[in-house]
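Example record

One chain of 545 residues, shown exactly as stored in the release files.
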Amino acid sequence: MSRTVSFIMLQSPCPIRARKMARLCHIPLDRAELKTPQNQRFTFGNIDNGKPEIGNSLHGVQVVGGSNPLAPTKIKAARLKALRLFRFSPHFAFVQCFLDKVLDVCLKLIASLARGHGLVESSLATRTAHCAIIMTDYAIWPAAATTAGLILALTPKRLFSRLDTPDFNSANRLHSLDGLRGLLALAVFFHHSVLGHFRPSLSEPTFPSPFYDMLGSVGVALFFMITGFLFWSRLISAQTSIRWMPLYVKRFFRIAPLYCFVAIVYGLATLQAVGIPAGTSPLHIAKQAVQWLAFGMVQNPEPFLSFPNTLGIIGQSWSLYYEWLFYASLPFLAVLAKNRTTAPIVIAALVFVLFVDGVIGPGARYFVAQFLLGMLAASINREHPAIRGDGPRRSVVAIALLVGVFWLCDTAYTQLASVLLGGFFTLVASGTSLFGLLKLTGARRLGDISYSLYLTHGAVLTFMFTSGPLLDFSLTGSPQFFMAQAISALVLLMVCIATYMLIEKPGIALGSWIAALPSIQGRQTASRAPIDQHPTTAQSVEGAG
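Predicted structure tokens for this chain:
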């Protein structure tokens, strides 16, 4: 029986989207082949000596992983642990080389111990060590560098002062949440940029990079927590009746204008791509259009003109459906908010949602839990004000909780991830700034335009990476892709500044004017401002796909 491998991982800067692939395959260990979508064949021989021979002229293609299905559990566990370490390692060349050598020595030692205990025969253990799984091609530091560049770009006070809200420097504003919101919007952008670049060449519906895969679900989870925190904070602080009509008018004009703009762009792009298919019923087209123009209130609308290829322009708006549901629940939550202590109520609801199966659907239960975790953070902040503050220790704990999510979980939609993210968010919502990062002027300005970042990044990525020189450039290698990603991020920033100034701010002003009309105000009076006038509530409506 010939020995076979269960995984082969390839690393290559070749001009195809398949340069990073994880394929289940069964091929002889001494000869590994991968045929790319463009029928280019890479042949590797003599894997046993740890130096695969490259069978074609493209430079830099190498086998970077492999495992034997007969390998013992201990060796598999060590190999997976090494992979987790490499997720967070810097990817500079000299550091990479050093870490490769260290990992190779460790795996050889494991193989020697395995042989000594009779777990595997000598040649198999050696091959397992030489074919260690090392996923190094999805570097993390370029995303961090791009984020730092955008924060620095928005730092000049005079140049971008028009982005600042009237209470931008107010001591009552939750500056840490502003900065967090901006970083989360960028995280969603990075998630979708990597997803759109590499997913088309993968036959399996799995995401090749654990880190970039997690960015999407972590982003939407924390956005939902922000919404729950902000609105529940105002409910439990309200001393008299809430003016619901002004609230919903302002919410509508906060969300709808930009959404309608993106929906129109999506519709026009779809029409340009496919036209109106022959034989399509006008009534059916009108039904599809109405679904997409419903401001995100329709769950999973049918692709316009039944053409799914342009969904990337607006697909991220799926989270608005759950935001609207949460807004609809506010009058009912206001009844519970009248209790003097609300934390036990929220904790009971959270435990019920997370740990009682069959009550809420498997997907929606975690969305509900994330709103509840935000509400819990608000209750804790109000009932235990001593928790508020900032400092290095708090930042270390917050970062440790966040790293734990990426380290221990495959998605944010699990019980463990929800608890860890809830702890992280509670610290940030109580003032933790992650060593001042979240309170930087540039980060907070990213928070100001975060709704635009979230809602328009799909259109920017679609138009920039569908075809053209930037796409061709990005496909020539990993450095080129990350450079193209940085360019698209800069273009997105300029687009978002424009949409914020020309669409969002006028929409907010119009909503405030309508909400102030006597017919909208009604006869209700209140000693406090409506809950949507909380300093940071105005942009808490983002989500991630």
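Notes: The longest helix spans residues 478-515.
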